[in-house]
Amino acid sequence: MSRKVLTSPYIVWGAAFIILPLFMVIYYGCTGSDGNFTLSNITAMADPVHYKAFWNSVWIAMASTMICLVISYPLAYILSKGKHRGSGVVIMLFVLPMWINFLLRVLALQVILSKTGILNAILGFFGLPLQKLMYTKGAVLIGMVYDYIPFMILPIYNALCKIDKDVIEAAHDLGASARVTFQKIIIPLSMPGVISGIIMVFIPSISEFVVADILGGSKVLLFGNVIDQEFNVANNWNLGSGLSIVLMIFIFISMAIMNRHASEEGDNMLW
């Protein structure tokens, strides 16, 4: 009884702010303005504008995830070695921006990447050609990597720190080189952290619209921007909900594939 009493606030919270909104999205997405059942809001995904915006989101989300992984894994591996006194300081530097408001961080990037911003001022000082980064996919990609890279570093760093040092020493005692140890032991044992990092970066990236709205302007249209415009500009909750359902289905399928891959990695490690 005491457990039920303690969990009741979480049940109420989940029902009010997770389950109920989800049912509202499903209801609006499967009905028209007249309240009758229809799938036209979901099949509107085939519209060229929606289709292009969706695959733009997928491409940028995959690119930002891969860049975060390429940057994070070597850094997390070096920091997990525990031989550097500044390891904790470096981790703190990556976590510190998360304490600042998300919108302020994006606006700060706008100041840096704009035509008369800090980056071009530095390039101009050294006589290098100026760069036009604002309102491009490159600017959106930089913004996503900057905002979501802590979510990639921390899971990988935690997974690497949990690897038993005795296992690595045993591999060296058995004659394994540093390269073989890294490929056969460290990478497989760190895969749960890698999968967690990929999920934590890819899922919010594919539904992102604030970064694209500020750094991409009207020249970069992502699927999140389309949904946002349907809700807040066109006031078409039915179409916005239908497109949201498509995005949720894609996210669920992606998570299922990633979780299955993670479980297969765990089974392979057991064998």
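Above is the first protein from milestone M3; the second protein from the same milestone is given next.
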Amino acid sequence: GNQEQVRTAVFGYYHDHQRMIRTDRWKLIRYPKIDRQQLFDIVNDPDEINDLSHSADHQMVLNELHAQMDQWFRNRSGN
């Protein structure tokens, strides 16, 4: 139709090995089995080269994306 944006975020997962949320600007990938995560600014780093997950400057973004991802998975599982 005439809508510019249908979703504010896209979520993805692969079994219990990988979780992902992507917004217009950010992409967070979480690897629960190895307790690792990666955060990318896909507007300024479209090739996903600079992992910002350890940057104190990006902690608020990381927390917001974690919250959105956790909420999506809770809603999906019915909990």
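Note on the second protein: Helices lie at 59-77.
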